[in-house]
Write a structure and sequence with these properties.
The structure is a homodimer. Chain A is an alpha+beta fold. Chain A has ten helices and 13 strands. Chain A has helices at residues 8-19, 65-81, 102-118, 170-181, 191-202, 208-217, 230-241, 256-265, 269-275, 291-302; strands at 26-28, 35-37, 44-53, 86-96, 122-130, 136-145, 161-165, 220-225, 243-248, 282-286, 306-314, 320-323, 326-329. In chain A, the strands form three sheets. In chain A, strands 8-10-7-11-9-12-13 form a seven-stranded mixed sheet, with helices on both faces. A four-stranded mixed sheet of chain A has the order 3-6-4-5. In chain A, helix 3 (102-118) links the parallel strand 4 and strand 5 (122-130). Strand 3 (44-53) of chain A pairs antiparallel with strand 2 of chain B.
Amino acid sequence: MTLKAYGEFDLIQRIRERIQGDDPDLVIGPGDDTAAVRHTPGSLSLLSTDTFVEGLDFLEEFSSWHQIGWKCMAANVSDIAAMAGRPRFALVSMCLPDETEIVAVDHLCDGMVDLARQYGVLIIGGDLSGTPGPLTISITIMGEVAPNQVIRRSGAEAGDRICVTGELGGAEAGLRLLQASTDEPLNGILPDDYANVLSRHRTPRPRTEEGRIIADSGCVGAMIDISDGLSADILHIGKESGVGIALDASRLPLNTAAARTASLLEIDPISLAMNSGEEFELVCTVSRAQADTLCQKVYDETGTRMSVIGEVVPQALGNTWLHGNTTHQLNAGGYDHFRK
Amino acid sequence: MTLKAYGEFDLIQRIRERIQGDDPDLVIGPGDDTAAVRHTPGSLSLLSTDTFVEGLDFLEEFSSWHQIGWKCMAANVSDIAAMAGRPRFALVSMCLPDETEIVAVDHLCDGMVDLARQYGVLIIGGDLSGTPGPLTISITIMGEVAPNQVIRRSGAEAGDRICVTGELGGAEAGLRLLQASTDEPLNGILPDDYANVLSRHRTPRPRTEEGRIIADSGCVGAMIDISDGLSADILHIGKESGVGIALDASRLPLNTAAARTASLLEIDPISLAMNSGEEFELVCTVSRAQADTLCQKVYDETGTRMSVIGEVVPQALGNTWLHGNTTHQLNAGGYDHFRK
């Protein structure tokens, strides 16, 4: 059954049932002019919004609706993680073409709710609209953080180490594999590698717990999550902090499955690690003396590897990456919505 | 110049300059992973989101981009007014087709900012995306309210009077006039009427101040703003409160210019008042003994007329509207995004 047969208010009711949940700080949930929430006294509210357009940000051929919903919510939760915050509440707007299947909306909501529940997030409102264009999902997330724990992009200092959680390249490798496989089924990829990079592309896991440990350490100056690609996102830290960035390609934690995928697809593995977007790993700058200790601590407490991949330098030294004995200029290689 | 010639990050920078402003409670503004704000201690945060799609919710032929921006922000502010809250901060997501003129984006932002500034709202973040579909604007607004002042849809009681701020019909009359005038210029409309109904359609003014006075009175059980039309919106109060609604058509405060427009266009004026959407007037239920006093108080303090238009009845009596000596069943006649 498609939306055409369904009224707006019936669909709202159907969605409300799927998203429902409790939170002691939720005073008014979906169904009034606004939602109303209480705050942890003294905390700051963190607010961010991210929009996803079918055909640009996701494809029905590459992911299930459940996975699409999961990933849209994950991208928002990741922004809260990048501020070292605790995600709390979300609002979801959807523009739905007439021919959208009701079951697709069901699965989309279920995917959002699954990610949200695992991260302590409750969907408390939203908006539905028709559209003659592509299905579009816009999520606004609200989190909270103690004022002395929030980590901005602007706190990096020359001499700091640059660290990254997890591994890189998997999300882009998964996407490339799907793109390559639409022409003909791809041989030569190991089943485990296939599952690994596809899950990195389809169902990323934001690093909220790692972000909290990083904030607790008190030795981190700046942080961002990798949504556009490491090269683009680390340069945001450089710009906002007024410093230069020096990455060491030999230290990039390239995902092994991504490396084998890159080899199969004849993609440069370093470029993959540098520019893979939607990784949702955290990049942070850590005072030199404490970087190794923090990496160990994050690993011990969460099982997530954290690696030193470079250092912050004075702005006059520019932005570079070292490959073998050669130093290259570091440019943003990530995704830009308007320049194609 | 169109967006194609512009990069995403240049456009973000351009927009940031247009929206910038200060608020003592804004700790982190646009340009980080999230914004961060402080709260008035003990207040509740009100959160709501509204999406607007070109071709469905607005037309470039009918309004300037400045007016479109104004109205999108007004609709969001109105939701805060409907909870008797104070609007504070907004996040704006825009999906922009490649061929969008940069100057259109400028005017859109200026319109949002103009409305926002007049109502004490600061834009603190957002997201930009391309789209192969229509230009789409999604705004999330955050407001605040003291817990004992918030007014929900669910507090109406049988015996309460139903009151509405301002006048009705103007927004729909303005839209109808624009629709009629695209075929041939319309004769017979007075210039003042034309200006009046067009401004009601294009640049509505949310009733935040009236909402505050209504909340202060302590005698209002339920409130909603008119976005889908009086008939649809008052039935939300009825449903959420478990009561019936009895409107009196003779008491509807029909906008005089709208009445003359209705006559010219051969539209039923009562239907116009009942179903005109995007009026952004407040409808509330007031204890019987205090309704007239509250109407007078709102008028004295704001210059906005407030009228008694019916009463809340036991649910068993159903939903009705009285016209002359005849009682009709009251049905939602407003806008539904999926049923056309």
